[in-house]
Design goal:
The structure holds 2 protein chains of 2 kinds. Chain A contains 11 helices and 4 strands; from the N terminus they run H-H-H-H-E-E-E-H-H-H-H-E-H-H-H. By secondary structure, chain A is mainly alpha-helical. Chain B has a two-stranded antiparallel ribbon. The chains are: A mainly alpha, B mainly alpha. Chain A: Its main location: membrane. Chain A: It comes from Mesobacillus persicus.
């Protein structure tokens, strides 16, 4: 029972981290029809900048805010200079964002050195609670709460505010929204920045969770995020959180019971989804 | 006329490269050029997908890696003789053909996004497999192996790789100029139109993916034979990225471009890592190439060779126009 509970908690926490990465990916894809292969790079940049700011200022929350700001700035630069020239051309988008991924992860090594950095949770999030025989690690609960909070906030903004209305309308019909006098380009940029900020938030939260951060982790998590996006359905926000939790849980349980198959399980899940439901579990378009 | 000139030019370069080891006796240069030839084959196979059919694959390393591991395992587990070498080549061809067929069947009917993501994921799967199947692959450390007597000499191996590259080049040139190759280019230019003309697009795409996968596997064989060592790095994203950089910088949709690109990247890699002793920034030479690559995708989507060809065409065009005016005037 303890094992089961611990694995579930672990899986949920990983799932929430993947969700933060996948959510930005799927939002950007849904609205702008751009698949951002550099998203993992933004994730890694969030992790490094956040951990570094936390280490220099000593405040975890300033670190988180720093990571989010890094994400926003990088998102703005990326949208303006990299994505904008290649709207509408899928092949070029894929190629160019992959190139950016390359540059981003190499730049990380220039700024912070090629070795991995260690990251620790702040003291008030260290340790664990014990309920009967079950050990609940505080930091994992914290990640799950943050993930839920982000999900609810984005969901609220999308469903209940004017800007959310514009974004949702933009996903359905870009030209119509433009015809109604809304500057859709600004909206695009905003969505891209928020997506990048979510990835950066995911990155900085990952640091204390895994203990170390390294430049290659962007690509590792990006693959998981792609799997999530495919399973959940491109452009579906609720789909991405469910698929992320699914992938997180299956990852943690498989790692315990059949460690050799952990990554293969997710891949097989994706292959099955692609064969029977290519648009994903919650996807609207194929 | 122009075609003859072009062929003469290529022939001249081929002869120069053939003679080179007899004239210029430098071991490191021979080894470097061998690498160039091997990666040129790999980049050409990638170009068949990206440049001629318009498919973006991020998992091309898996075919390369399969070739590299197959030869390694055959030479290590059995004996390093020519028959086993031939058997390994056969197994590589069969494995890569089957794999590229299955991957193509699963994903090529989907949008380009899905193909890119899925191939990335598949290559990841093979990387994990190579790491975990320790009894056969020795995990992350990899293993050394001996090659058949015939391939031991560096100069002979240089010539073998050169001939292999020329063969692949000639074959692929014929292939892309065949009616089948024309259909592939039509798919790249306008997929719905090719489909409405009655071509079964998916089947043509699968053919391209199989041919490309098999050639990548053969390049992988030569690669691990040149090192006499294989480890999991042959399955990593870096290998695919190399092919991508070579094709994009050299020139998409021109086989010569892939060769030029392979030369540029390999030589730059060699020299820039040597420069790392001067300043550590040169160790991060990928940044430079990443930026060049991004700029190339944006401004020179045809790469070096394609841009040169365009310039030549335009020049010819203006000259012809002038002639027309003279005649009419």
């Amino acid at each position: 029972m303890e094992v089961f509970f611990n694995l579930a908690l672990n899986g949920l926490a990983t799932g929430m981290l993947i969700f933060l990465l996948a959510a930005g990916l799927t939002l950007i894809f849904g609205l702008m029809d751009v698949l951002n292969f550099a998203h993992g790079g933004l994730f890694a940049w969030g992790a490094y900048s956040g951990t570094w700011i936390y280490a220099t200022t000593g405040s975890f929350f300033i670190g988180i805010i720093g990571a989010i700001i890094t994400g926003l700035i990088l998102g703005m630069i990326t949208e303006r200079f990299i994505i904008k020239p290649v709207y509408g051309n899928h092949v070029q988008q894929i190629l160019i964002t992959l190139g950016l991924m390359l540059v981003l992860s190499e730049l990380l090594k220039v700024v912070w050195g090629p070795n991995q950095l260690s990251a620790v949770a702040p003291s008030f999030l260290q340790g664990s609670w014990e309920v009967g025989n079950i050990i609940i690690i505080k930091y994992r609960v914290f990640i799950i709460l943050v993930g839920l909070l982000v999900f609810l906030a984005v969901q609220y903004v999308l469903k209940n505010t004017k800007i959310g209305l514009v974004v949702r309308a933009g996903v359905m019909n870009k030209e119509m929204v433009q015809a109604l006098g809304i500057n859709i380009k600004k909206v695009f940029m905003l969505v891209f920045m928020i997506g990048a900020a979510m990835a950066a938030l995911g990155g900085v939260l990952l640091g204390p969770y895994s203990g170390v951060i390294h430049a290659e982790m962007g690509m590792e998590f990006a693959i998981l995020a792609f799997i999530v996006v495919v399973i959940g359905g491109m452009g579906s926000f609720p789909g991405s959180i469910l698929a992320a939790i699914l992938v997180g849980l299956s990852g943690s349980f498989m790692a315990y019971y059949v460690p050799d198959l952990a990554l293969a399980a997710n891949m097989l899940l994706m292959v099955v989804v692609l064969i029977f439901r290519p648009q994903g579990l919650f996807g609207m378009k194929g | 006329m122009i075609k003859e000139k072009k062929n003469l030019f290529y022939g001249l370069i081929a002869v120069m490269l053939l003679v080179l080891p007899f004239v210029y006796d430098s071991r490191s240069m021979i080894i470097l050029l061998t690498q160039v030839f091997i990666f040129a084959m790999f980049a050409m196979s990638y170009d068949l997908l990206l440049g001629y059919t318009g498919i973006v694959s991020f998992g091309h390393a898996m075919f390369f890696g399969i070739g590299a591991y197959t030869i390694g395992i055959f030479m290590k587990q059995f004996e390093p003789t020519v028959p086993y070498f031939l058997l390994a080549v056969l197994v590589t061809v069969v494995l890569t053909a089957i794999l590229s067929y299955i991957v193509g069947l699963l994903t090529l009917r989907l949008k380009s996004h899905f193909y890119a993501m899925l191939t990335l994921a598949f290559a990841g799967l093979f990387l994990v497999l190579a790491e975990k199947w320790r009894s056969l692959t020795y995990g992350n450390d990899g293993f050394t192996f001996r090659t058949p007597e015939v391939f031991r000499d560096r100069f002979d191996f240089y010539l073998i790789c050169l001939v292999a590259m020329i063969l692949v080049f000639v074959l692929l040139t014929r292939f892309t100029n065949s009616p089948l190759g024309r259909v592939l280019q039509a798919i790249r230019e306008n997929e719905p139109r090719a489909e409405s003309l009655g071509y079964s697009v998916i089947q043509y795409k699968i053919i391209a993916s199989v041919v490309s996968g098999v050639i990548a596997g053969l390049a992988g064989i030569l690669y691990s034979m040149s090192l006499r060592f294989v480890n999991t790095s042959v399955f990593t994203m870096d290998i695919t990225l190399d092919a991508l950089l070579m094709t994009i910088i050299g020139g998409v949709g021109t086989l010569v471009g892939a060769i030029v690109g392979a030369g540029i990247i390999e030589f730059a890699h060699h020299w820039l890592t040597q420069l790392a002793k001067v300043h550590w920034i040169f160790e991060r030479w990928i940044i430079l190439f990443g930026i060049v690559y991004i700029l190339a995708v944006m401004f020179f989507p045809k790469g070096i060779v394609g841009t040169l060809q365009n310039m030549k065409k335009r020049k010819k065009h203006t000259v012809e126009n002038k002639d027309d005016k003279n005649i009419s005037g």
